[in-house]
C-alpha cells in the first residue's frame, strides 16, 4: 500500500488508475482505526477496483473545547491494518494541504435543515465541517463510490444530501455498524473509556433495542419512550445528550403514523461522548390497517 500526503501526487497517481479503466472507492476516516473501519475497507474492495482510504483529523468538525488536540493518532498501526485489509492507497494529508487558505478562510458546505439537529445542536458547526471536508475529499479523489459507517446515521444522511444537492457523481454506500460482543458500537472514542465504563456503556445499545421493541409493539408515545430510555441510560452512569425517535428518511422528529423510523442517541460516559442508532421499520406491524380486499 502506498501512502501519499501531497495532493499533487495523489492526483497524478489516480489519473493513472482512471486511465486504466479502474474504479475507485473512497473510505474517509480520522484514523485510530478499529474493526468498524476495516469493515468499510472490505466493503470497498467488493465494490471497486481500487480502495483509497484517507486519514485526516478534520479540525473544521471539532468545536472549541472538544477533543481535537487529544484525538488519538496512531498512523503506523493504522497503515498496518489498512495494508492487511487490502487497501491500495492511503491519503494522509496535512492541514495546510486540505485548507491552503487556513481553516478560518475555507469555503464552507452546509446542508440545511438537518445539520443543526441532534448532534448538530450539541456540536454547532460540526456537520458543516464534515460536509466541507467530504466534499473536498471527493474533489481530490474523484471516487466512483464512497463508503461511510451507519453508526453516524445523521452524518450519512447529510453526506447523501450534500452529494445529491451538489450533483456529485459519487455513489454513497452505508455500511452496518460493527459492535463488540456486548453490543457496544465500535468507535475511536471508546478508547477514552475505562474497562468499567466500557461495560456500562452497553446500556446505550440496550436502550435502543428496548425502544425498538416497544415501537414494534405499537407504542407510539415517542416522547414517553425517549424519556424512559434516558432514565435507563442515566442509571447506567451516562449523562444525557439526546435520545429521539425520528423519521428515518427526513430525520425530523417522528410523528405517529410514520413507518420508517430511526432511534438516534448520544450520551456522555466519562470522558467520551458516544452515539448510536437503530433503524426500525414498523410497516409490518400486526395492527397495521390491512389492505382492502377487492
Ligand atoms: O466519520 C468520520 O470519521 C468523519 O466525520 C469523516 C467522515 C472522516 C469526515 O472527517
Verbal overview:
The structure is a single chain. The protein is an alpha/beta fold and 294 residues long. It folds into 2 domains: 2-175, Rossmann fold, CATH 3.40.50.620; 188-280, Pantoate--beta-alanine Ligase, Chain: A,domain 2, CATH 3.30.1300.10. It is 37% helix and 19% strand. The protein is built from 10 helices and 9 strands. Helix 9 (202-216) runs antiparallel to helix 10 (222-235). The longest helix is centred in the middle third of the chain and has 16 residues, at 126-141. The mean pLDDT is 96.
Give a short summary of the structure.
This protein has helices spanning 7-19, 35-47, 75-84, 95-98, 119-122, 126-141, 153-165, 195-200, 202-216, 222-235; strands at residues 2-4, 24-29, 50-55, 89-91, 145-149, 171-175, 239-247, 260-269, 272-281.
User: Which percent bin holds the helix content?
Assistant: 25-40%
Mean pLDDT value? 96
Q: Tell me the name of the CATH class of the largest domain.
A: Alpha Beta
Counting H and I runs of at least 4 residues, what is the number of helices? 10
Beta-strand residue percentage: 15-25%
What form results from the Cα inertia axes? globular
Architecture of the largest domain in CATH? Answer: 3-Layer(aba) Sandwich
- N- to C-terminal separation? 62 Å
What is the CATH superfamily of the largest domain?
HUPs
Amino acid at each position: 500500500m502506498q501512502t501519499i500526503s501531497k495532493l499533487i501526487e495523489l492526483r497524478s497517481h489516480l489519473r493513472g488508475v482512471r486511465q486504466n479503466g479502474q474504479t475507485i472507492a473512497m473510505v474517509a476516516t480520522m484514523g485510530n482505526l478499529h474493526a468498524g473501519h476495516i469493515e468499510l475497507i472490505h466493503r470497498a474492495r467488493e465494490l471497486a477496483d481500487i480502495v483509497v482510504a484517507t486519514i485526516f483529523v478534520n479540525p473544521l468538525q471539532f468545536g472549541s473545547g472538544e477533543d481535537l488536540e487529544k484525538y488519538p493518532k496512531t498512523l503506523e498501526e493504522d497503515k498496518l491494518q489498512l495494508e492487511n485489509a487490502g487497501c491500495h492507497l492511503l491519503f494522509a494529508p496535512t492541514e495546510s494541504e486540505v485548507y491552503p487558505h487556513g481553516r478560518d478562510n475555507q469555503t464552507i458546505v452546509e446542508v440545511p435543515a438537518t445539520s443543526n439537529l441532534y448532534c448538530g445542536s450539541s456540536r454547532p458547526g460540526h456537520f458543516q465541517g464534515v460536509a466541507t471536508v467530504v466534499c473536498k475529499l471527493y474533489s481530490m479523489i474523484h471516487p466512483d463510490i464512497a463508503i461511510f459507517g451507519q453508526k453516524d446515521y445523521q452524518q450519512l444522511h447529510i453526506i447523501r444530501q450534500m452529494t445529491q444537492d451538489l450533483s456529485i457523481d459519487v455513489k454513497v454506500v452505508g455500511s452496518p455498524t460493527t459492535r463488540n460482543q456486548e453490543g457496544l458500537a465500535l468507535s475511536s472514542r471508546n478508547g477514552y473509556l475505562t474497562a468499567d465504563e466500557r461495560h456500562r456503556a452497553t446500556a446505550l445499545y440496550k436502550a435502543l433495542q428496548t425502544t425498538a421493541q416497544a415501537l414494534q409493539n405499537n407504542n407510539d408515545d415517542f416522547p414517553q419512550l425517549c424519556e424512559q430510555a434516558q432514565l435507563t441510560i442515566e442509571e447506567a452512569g451516562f449523562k444525557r445528550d439526546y435520545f429521539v425517535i425520528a423519521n428515518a428518511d427526513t430525520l425530523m422528529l417522528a410523528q405517529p403514523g410514520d413507518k420508517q423510523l430511526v432511534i438516534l442517541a448520544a450520551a456522555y460516559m466519562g470522558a467520551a461522548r458516544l452515539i448510536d442508532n437503530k433503524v426500525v421499520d414498523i410497516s409490518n406491524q400486526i395492527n397495521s390497517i390491512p389492505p382492502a380486499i377487492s
